[in-house]
Amino acid sequence: MSKGQLPRWVDYGLLPALNLIAAFIVSGLVVVVIGEDPFEAVKWLVWGALGYGEGVGYTLYYATNFIFTGLAVAVAFHAGLFNIGGEGQAYVGGLGIAIACLALDRFVPWWVTLPFAIAGGALFGAAWAFIPAYLQAKRGSHIVITTIMFNFIASALMVYLLSNVLIPQGTMSPSTRNFEAGGQLPLLRNVFTTLDFGQSPVNLAFFIALVVCVVVWLLIWHTKLGYEIRSFGANPDAAAYAGISPVRITVVTMLISGALAGLMGMNVVMGEQTRLLLDFAGGAGFVGIAVALMGRGHPVGIILASLLFGLLYQGGAELAFEIPTISRDMIVVIQALVILFAGALEHMFRPAVVAFFDRFSSETAEA
Amino acid sequence: MVYFESRNEIDAQVIDLIDQKGRATVAGSNVPAIELIGVNKSFGPVHANKDIDLVVGKGSIHGIIGENGAGKSTLMSILYGFYHADSGTIKIDGKATTIPDSKSAISQGIGMVHQHFMLVDPFTVLENVVLGAEGGALLKDGVANARRELKRLADEYDMTIDPDAVVGELPVGLQQRVEILKALYRGADILILDEPTGVLTPSEADHLFRILRVLRDQGKTVLLITHKLREIMDVTDTVSVMRRGEMVASRKTAQTSMEELAELMVGRSVLLEVSKPDVEVGKPLLKVEGLNVKDERGVRRVKDVSFEVRAGEVLGIAGVSGNGQSELMAALAGITRAESGSMELAGQKLDLSEVHDAAQMRDRGMSHVPEDRHRMGLVNKFSEAENSILGYHRESKYSKGMFLDKDAIRKEAKERIEKYDIRPPLTEMTAAKFSGGNQQKIVLAREIECNPDVLLIGQPTRGVDIGAIEYIHNRIMDMRAQGKAVLLVSVELDEIRSLSDRIIVMFDGNVVGERGPEATEQDLGLLMAGVNQEAAELV
Amino acid sequence: MKTKTILGAVALAAVMTTGAMAETFKPAVVYDFGGRNDRSFNEAAYKGALQFKGRTGINFRDFEIQNPSQREQALRNFARRGLDPVITIGFAQAAALEKVAKEFPDTHFAIVDAVVDLPNVRSIVFKEGEGSFLVGMLAAMATDTDTIGFVGGMDIPLIRKFACGYKQGAKYVNSDTEIIVNMTGTTGAAWTDPLKGGELARSQFARGADVVFHAAGLTGTGVLQAAADEGKLGIGVDSNQNQLHPGSVLTSMVKGVDVAVDRTLTDAKEGNWTSGVEVLGLAENGVSWAFDEHNKALITEEMNAAVEQAKMDIISGKIEVHDYMVDSNCPI
Predict the structure, then answer these.
(1) Which residue numbers delimit the ABC transporter substrate-binding protein PnrA-like domain (chain C) (predicted)?
(2) Lesser CB count within 10 Å: N end or C end of chain C?
(3) What is the pTM of this model?
(4) Residue-wise pLDDT tens digits, A159-175
(5) Are C299 and C174 in the same domain?
């Protein structure tokens, strides 16, 4: 082990744990400041997310969203691209899914609709990522800026479509009609009747997310394309030297990233709501950035980070419910603290830990 | 306690040593402004500064000359507190000291003018000078004082400048003047200039030298880092020569000559002999015609270069680095687009202003060992095995459909590790953890084992230990013996001379001469230093 | 000793009775995005619940949702814990309510701004078009430039309903009136962006408008501010906003969400609950135009008379205000 390097368990286990503990300590202080018992708060948070079947179901349901968007951000990140547009890509991807469902749900069972919905979500999400990717590759317009702009354009587009085109006549809510059974993913509570998921909306999309994790793992670490993506991300000069076209990799990676984000709608649109509605992405595209950072871009890490954020979402809702003085804004503060410590301040503890292990390893070496 | 005792011991020993060697010269007063004794600095396996001794007299201009990569910048960074010496003593004004950071360097009267200016473009001259030395919480007082002080400095050293001009709008020469004023404003008595003329026009450079002389006459000490012989001869009082991390000589400028310095800079053969058997030279495998290459900023770095390399021949390109060799190689390897020019490879003519695709060049039988393996030749984060297919990862033998065949890759990587004696023999270790020599072997194995017709190889032994140098040289000779064409770029003259069948020298983007391997070091050294051309220009 | 026991028993009984009382009536409110302090629609519901609490002393629980999935979750959580009635605010809750109301057929639910056709649900919708018609008339009468403005939050059916009534009212007074319509945004922030509201109002003033009606929640406070700053007239919405800038707010289109919430709670408590659709228009005083001491100076006798006449005519059916929702279309 050379200087400055950390054992894997420290890098992937200890450091995230330290960051998380720090986030919770600071959150606890905030809870104390507003006059509540932080241990009580933690109890409700954990119980709400894991203490009963329905809570677990909701935790998994939220985690499913974050897995999709986290993978999207991570794939782009492997190519050194910072895709902030997961939110918009997920939103527009939902449109693709909804179109497939609306077209087919009255005629075929759900498992026939499924591949079309997946294709629709992926295609629309990818299409939404294409223009920023092309502008970055060919014109050098920074992808962070363009993807943010495309989030706004996506919401404008969706408001227009939902209010004018997709809305059923005479209804107030800007959403499509409800999909029939042929456009609904089975809920896990109906599939695994022996397991207690309460009334939670966790559905088959959870398993789709896990399959996609495997696909992404294979793609990034076992295919030629993944090799090129990682080369380009780790060392663009070496990639150019190896004859890897930066334009092609930028565009292809962003298409994959957008497609992954677009699949998020499988969970919400086809799984839970069984309709396309305004703002259904609900910030999951942004949480995906934190998830990807925390999960170190690896599908296993992303699953774990998604579960953590799913836990925070579900437990947070439950906490706000049980202790009304802890408002939803407080929950946002706690989530933000986790993101802050796990993402932005990721390197806060690193120097100290590195120094500790350096001393430790040099002592053992001398001994 | 222990610390003080041992330091005194070292001082005594080293001073003795210097007296015996007697090569340090002191101009001006008796107490030298700077004294370095036995300074060492390593970066991993690279020994950038080896036992450096240096004495610079107060009130003198001292030049430090050497090739790029000779260790000059590292040494100056140690003086300015960017790096810490692994061992050795630094004395300022005769007193042993430590320089933990640049703040400390400034407080000890050391100022530095970097090669790339550290200026804030949208700020005015005055604001830049004050930046970091505002003096007090209220900017206003500091600025008023600074305005007075700036005017005094400008008058005293004959450096007139408008304090309210915006720096970004000034010509480069004046920006440099701001840097110098900045250092003086902070009370610098010792001024280090790192390659100051690299960005200047000849007349701007002359003006700079006039300023430096004024500074010297006012009692300041100037350290001038450069690789240009003419500047040393023009402006310095004393000069030290660095080569491969060592301080090889110190001279009074008046008592030396360009020829001697060139020879010292390039160095005598310290390399092991390479056996160069006779090989029958065949038909040209690589022909380059009328190649012009511009860099990203639109400056033409390769100017109408033509040459050919035949089967069984090593063509060496000598030259001080930064004279267009890198751009030449990048264009030939298909990494950057040329402005104009063509290349004939394997009997097929390619317009290099159209084709720039490294993958296509590889397919046509050209492989490339880049001069900077960290920046280009390797992905440091990747494992040895992953690096062993970089650029060849599309080949069918490494893949099963769209997937990489990891077993096949690992198996071949293992074979190469054995064949090239790469240590440690671990296919899964990341490239960054290998030593320089072994990293180079990973690249070399990859580029040679694909059996190319033409091998481009840049700086094959930079940062490589002596054992690996011999091995790498022998591999290049093997390629030659197999009837391949090798284009070798190196700043090591010995390497060029011992490996090449023909040598061309590049200066400022032009090919300034061709010689055989029997050419003398002095002859090549002068061509490399652009002396011929510069002399012509001066007339 | 004995006395003590009896006293204790009485005290215990008292405790049990109050406990049982509280047990029997535990109302809950679920707000939509925006939350209880959005200075607008959700806040009006909150006020209604507060009024009820102030009058009866009965506490209520509430919840602000953060993402779409929580709508269903919150409703279910309240119903499962025995809270009854549960009032949901906003059309977006309709789908969630439809599911949860079926799961808990014995719980009473109410929804504001949407219709959910279930036996245990009271749906409360307003004829925003009628109220907007009246303020549109006032705007058309007050303008000197024959140009008036409308700043909506988001381009969704509910807001078009406001806009449509407003336009009809203005054209009813003067068919040459020009109406400039702008929407603030396309995300949730559209309802909470006073700066942008002010900018839009200013741009409408620059294009000649001198009266601007907003239907944009918190964003609208920026619209009214801009009108006050530039010496033009604003028109408030949902609650009576006349007092925000007295003399600069021509009137407000009051939508009685607070009254509706208060009344729903009261009905439930007193056993007068009815399920089904409640449509609140001018006739039911569910929507109205605000006339008080703050805008007395701005409304002439003539204007007052015209509007009151129109109000009667609408109630009597003499004037028909086209409802945007009927055909998703506005005739003007």
Answers:
(1) 28-321
(2) N
(3) 0.79
(4) 999 988 998 887 778 88
(5) yes
